[in-house]
Amino acid sequence: MTPLLRRGKKKAGDRVVTLIGKPGCHLCDDARSVVEQVCAETGASWEEKDITQDEELHREYWEQIPVVLVDGEQHTFWRVDAGRLRRELGA
């Protein structure tokens, strides 16, 4: 039996995590590992965007990378906490 979800709350498999970073960034490499692991565990999909390829993302996030968005809204930046991301995804 599946537990009831609050109205409007998405299941992890319906969520999209976006990692915004740039090549050569060691914090981005660390964040990628956490995002990849948590998304594999929860069934959420994820994508990565490079601020060096997108002027708008660069203007908005260059001081905060890596930045993690969940369904387009900022979840965290600099360091990604796996437990917090799991909770955000409803896992």
UniProtKB/TrEMBL annotation:
Family matches, as Pfam families: Glrx-like
Q: What is this protein called?
A: Glutaredoxin
Q: Which organism is it from?
A: Streptomyces wuyuanensis
State the taxonomy lineage.
Bacteria, Bacillati, Actinomycetota, Actinomycetes, Kitasatosporales
